Amino acid sequence: MRPDAAATAVGVLANTPPVAAPRQIGTAALAWTVWPVCYTAAVTAVMFERRRYAMPSDNKMTFVKRCMGLGRAILTACVAAVACFVGNAAATIGQEIPSNARAASSNTPGANTPNANTPGTNPANSNTGNVAPASGSSAPTQRPNILFAFADDWGRFASAYAKLDGPGTVNDLVKTPTFDRIAREGILFRRAFVSAPSCTPCRSALMTGQHFWRTGRGAILRGAVWEEKHAAFPLLLRDAGYHIGETYKVWSPGTPGDAPFGAGKYAFEKAGGRFNQFSENVTKMLARGEPLEAAKQSLFAEVRANFDAFLAARPAGRPFLYWFGPTNVHRQWQRGSGKRLWGLEPDDLRGKMPPFLADEPEIREDLADYFGEVQAFDAALGVLLERLAATGE
Questions:
Q1: How far apart are CA 274 and CA 363, in angstroms?
Q2: Which of 28, 76, 275, 277 is most buried, with most CB under 10 Å away?
Q3: Measured distance CA(223)–CA(200) in Å, rounded
Q4: DSSP secondary structure of 273-294
Q5: Out of 19-33, 102-116, 141-155, 234-248, which region has the weakest mean confidence (pLDDT)?
Q6: Of 260, 272, 281, 298, which Cα lies nearest the Cα of 148?
């Protein structure tokens, strides 16, 4: 049964008028007393008629079967009466439990306040985003700021996993100090799975908290259309008083672009988007004679400037949600960039490749280039954390 159907069933049960207990008991007593009496009377009548008329064997059996059928009919009627009694009792219990539960809840220390959707509550208090105060506290808990970093196509590859997996895996090569710090100070998932192995469907699932197939036309890749009937968590946070903003990819391909985050209304990207093609752009700058570190820093500066614009637009005292979604880890990337830009030696992956990848020079180089983009993302995430630390957040 769906949760909404179950809730409806409970609501109907709770609103069923109760039947007085003495009447219920009397109904049950009558039912359980009448059926054995009727059944015995039917059998006695059969025996009496057999002896009185001395019917032939076939006729006797026909009469017996008819009387036995009458007895079964009476039995069925009595069972139905008992079922009615049980139903009435359930209705009475359903009427009484919610009020008792509410009374118990109101007397429980630290119990939650009524939900905005509960009948009788003040709708003006809905969507405020305030956390219910703890027992004995008069002030609401301060709402957290949210920095949401979403890498396109970054799998389970980070130096934090090298410590878990032990030596001898591809994670020995990649270095992700910022990711490792977040994992160390928070939670590192060992087994996490995306809702769908495709851009738009998995992002629809993330935005709504639903399985991707429940998001209508948002459940496809090409030709996806966002339907406004689906609630998306960024806009819910906005309605709850959060300052929200995003940079780079949120929800696409689809129409309108980035729809569950305001369709570009809350985008902060004026400083530039060259970071999305990190290895390609850095390689171009190197070809023009720019130093490697300076070329990298020019792209990190764009990331920092976009974030600064978001923070500058934030009203005083408002919590924030900032979505950082570059696409640099998604193909394409510059061939040989892992070694050239990050010093990642492809041959260090020899003998460590996962079973689904060939342990060949071209494949090892491609994976090293991919890890270079991972490290670029990790460095950009470090830029955001440094900026927050500088502002005291």
A1: 26
A2: 275
A3: 10
A4: -GGGGHHHHHHHHHHTT--HHH
A5: 102-116
A6: 260
Each residue of 281-316: pLDDT tens digit?
999 999 999 999 999 999 999 999 999 999 999 999
Side chain identity at 221, as an amino acid letter? L
Here the tokens at position 28 are: 């049950």
Q: Which pLDDT tens digit goes with each residue over 88-130? A: 444 444 444 343 343 333 343 333 433 433 333 333 333 333 4
Residue 105 corresponds to which amino acid? S
| 337 in Cβ contact with 283 (< 8 Å) | yes
| Helices 278-287 + 361-390 axis angle, to 10 | 100
DSSP 270: T
* Structural contact between residues 218 and 204, judged by C-beta atoms closer than 8 angstroms: yes
With a CB cutoff of 8 Å and minimum separation 6, the contacts of 224 are 200, 201, 204, 217, 218, 253, 254, 255
CB 334 within 8 A of CB 283: yes
* Residue 112, phi-psi category: left (phi > 0), alpha (psi -120 to 50), beta (remainder): beta
Alpha-carbon distances of 392 from 99, 137, 247, 389, rounded to whole Å: 48, 26, 22, 5
Three-class SS of residue 243? Answer: strand
Alpha carbons 348 and 169: distance in angstroms, whole number: 10
Q: Residue 247 corresponds to which tokens in the numbers above?
A: 């940079």
What pTM was computed for the model?
Answer: 0.65
Q: What is the CA radius of gyration of the chain?
A: 35
| Beta carbons of 328 and 277 less than 8 angstroms apart | yes
Residue closest to 179 by CA, chosen among 392, 371, 391: 371
Query: How many separate helices (H) and strands (E) can be counted in the chain?
Result: 11, 3
Which amino acid does the sequence have at 65? K
φ, ψ for residue 174 (rounded to 5)? -75, 145
pLDDT of residue 9: 33
